[in-house]
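In the previous chapter we treated chains in isolation. Here, by contrast, the input contains two separate entities that must be folded as one system, with a combined length of 313 residues.
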Amino acid sequence: MNTSIDRLVTLVAGTLFGFGLSWATMIRPEVVLSFLTFDDLGLLFVLGAATGLNLIVFQLVPRLRRRALLGGAFEPRPFQVDRRSLAGGALFGVGWGICGVCPGPALAGLGAGNPDLLIALGGIFAGALLHGLTVGRRECPAPAPVAAATAD
Amino acid sequence: MSVVANMFNLLFPHGVAPYLVGGLLIGLGVAVLYVVTGRQGGASTVFSSTWSWFVATPFFRQAALLDSRRWRLVYAAGFVLGGALYLALGLPQEASHLPAWKLALGGVLIGYGARLGGGCTSGHGICGMASLNRGSMLIVATFMATAIATAWIMKGLGVGA
């Protein structure tokens, strides 16, 4: 696989994502919090449009093509839910309900000129480190989905 | 008819167009990455995979993080770039005014919870649900419920947005 094309497409995909988050005003924590308190349910359309589009893509494209355009395998999502991951989801929700920031908008909002989000990003990095140091001591979890040998 | 219109304005005071268009652009980013490279592009794993450059414990040395850390960093850089592009085009953007303690406390919980939960709003919410993964749907229902409860409690305590 051509790595530089791969990197360029990955950058463009991320840029579309970040631009979309900005357009949807999800980079403003206040907008997310007003969704969670039912003052503006517009975020339902963000999730609905993004997920609806990819429901078609994820279900249809692997049936039409054996491999991705650059040759990599289409990744499955081998996630198995258990009590611990449900606890993680619950904690994520509490954090989201406190500050209205999620990982993607923290990055996009920083680019759009909201330096306050550096504090949230610092917190997210710290939380991820804390997770790796505490959970990792007991076991390595099932691998997150990664691309096949073509990843790098 | 006006009752319906009033209801709509109450639920969607800013209309639905920016949300719909933004959601489609977000979805397009995920779709492009998937169709071209085969990868499912959640946003939260980068916070673990990036630590793998600095922390050499078995958890951070696992193949899933080492093998994906480069593209994930490029993908995350794209997020920042997308926001910067929005700013550069002079599109409407209001500053937010959230106290630092909420961003810090919320951030740590988000980072820890997303990694323990195996994903966030994009990993489970978009990729997982588009994959029809039942576990992801359960996680989404869980974090939606706790986020709504937390936001209402904060609002009730007078420390909401």
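The two ends of chain A are 9 Å apart (CA to CA). Residues 3-39+78-136 of chain A form one domain. Compare these points with the single-chain example from earlier in the chapter.
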